[in-house]
Amino acid sequence: MIVIVKNGASREALKELTDRIEGQGLKIHMSQGESTTIMGLIGDVSRVDIDLLRSNSIVEAVRRISEPFKKANRKFHPADTVVEIPARDGAVKLGGGEFCLIAGPCSVESEEQILSIARSVKAAGAHLLRGGAFKPRTSPYAFQGLGTDGLQLLLKAKAETGLPIVTEIMSVDKLEFFSDVDVIQVGARNMQNFELLKELGKCQKPILLKRGLSSTIEEWLMSAEYILASGNPNVILCERGIRTFEHFTRNTLDISAIPVAKELSHLPIIVDPSHSAGYARFVAPLSMAAAAAGADGLIIEVHNDPTAALCDGAQCIKPDAFGELTGRLSGLLSVMGGKR
Ligand code: PEP
Ligand code: MN
10 Å Cβ neighbour count for 283? Predict the structure, then answer.
């Protein structure tokens, strides 16, 4: 971190500032130019309050040189993290060159619905089954999910198909019901629920961390850092579209987040084209784009009867469209060859 001192700062004010910085356990490399004084802060600057430094009357500017996230940072962990999800038919790997397909309805609605969808997505090549039991809905009057009954139905689908399950947690007090869940999803609206992130960091289960609706990539990686810093290394990032001025799609898929997150972090990153697009007809092209840009996988909403879906019907594709898409993705991935 670099602090540029204002011209004409008094000796006393400079001494007060350096004492304050050194008092935080940091060393200072002072560079006194003809007109500018620059301080290089050496040591662990992660606890430095940048805004407080900036507000000091003799400080002209403060620049960060290293990113505020350490454990999620590729600089300190150059190799890709591969998250392994145990499964009946062999572990599913996320990251490190594998391509993972997660598919299923937005919400679990009934036994018949989840079993039927689980069977068809498995037949089409899905590696994991998704389905919400606790749903974060904008309206309190909309379907809120089947709760713990929904989790039981997911476990039934897992027992029959062998597909590990991915489902969303909304609050810490429900964690006790997630012991048989294979991957816990933190939804976009909870990306900065730091108490939840800290608690999820205490287990070793894979955590699918969606990017917040209006979060920067740095904020997203800082949320991943919460889970990692609490002791859980199994974090999977998920880009699900962000809010922009564009209304033709539900969100704007930030394709650039894939190479950027991969450059900054060693964590695997998957894409949710369904919540990005908002409409089923855009799901296939966005999926192909994500695979081409280097995503480690996709999480796609698939419903056997989208027009009757209790949640997100407009963006759910049907099982046959999912099957067609997996075929096209295999073609693309084999042309791309090698590592993502
Ligand atoms: C979901 O996956 O159904 C969901 C609610 O996603 P998001 O948190 O990305 O909106
Ligand atoms: Mn949904």
Answer: 25
